[in-house]
Amino acid sequence: MSLTTGKGPLSARPAGRFTAPMPDHVAYIEPFPRRVWATKDGRTVIDSERVLLVHRQGRPPTYAFPLGDVKGTPTEPEPDAAGYVTVPWDAVDSWFEEEEQVFGHPRNPYHRVDSLRSRRQLRVEAAGITLVDTDETMAVYETALDPRLYVDPRLVRMDLLTLSDSHTYCPYKGTASYWTAHVGGEALEDIAWSYEDPLPESLALRRLLSFDETRVVVHHNLPSAD
Predict the structure, then answer these.
(1) pLDDT in tens, 52-67
(2) Beta strand 36-40 with 43-48: parallel, antiparallel or unpaired?
(3) What are the tens digits of pLDDT across the range 117-161?
(4) Whole-angstrom Cα distance, residue 156 to residue 151?
(5) What integer pLDDT is reported at residue 143 of this predicted model?
(6) Checking DSSP bridges between strand 36-40 and strand 94-97, what pairing results, if any?
């Protein structure tokens, strides 16, 4: 995310603009000064302190390693860094930066999540029923994404919501749990999500809810990142 996806500067639809045209298919490659290692079947198959982080348009960042730092797992040459290779994310069982496990894709050093207490109004309706109507909100400004509003569950019709079995993972906020609304005799699946146990940098979002405007009617006065 950040540089190359969402509305980042090297994405296909950047929020801002360069003062001169950027070349097509440009990649940004930088040293990544962390020990990165990975295991497969209980064995360490990657262990490197000479890692490069590769940013390409429309993709999360990827690690590139000197060939000698990878053993016993498939590799692909990194075309823009001689002597370096990449490893498919699913080719190993577990990835680590230092002693912290990494899920999904490498964490991007240019990605930031700012959670700010706000008085922006949020009103959410599902099948004609108001689930929340408040200006006591948390505005979340996440790099390269549109701003979002989160709200404390005490301000939400939680009597109409139940946890679903759905989960997603964000490398910057943690595991999201999803909520189903029961209104008008029907179940509206996964209309909201929350981070019940967020990562340390996103603790301000703990147990707050945000709503999916493609599944319910969401009214707010947030600006767009465009």
Answers:
(1) 999 998 888 999 999 9
(2) antiparallel
(3) 999 999 999 999 999 999 999 999 998 788 999 999 999 999 999
(4) 8
(5) 84
(6) antiparallel
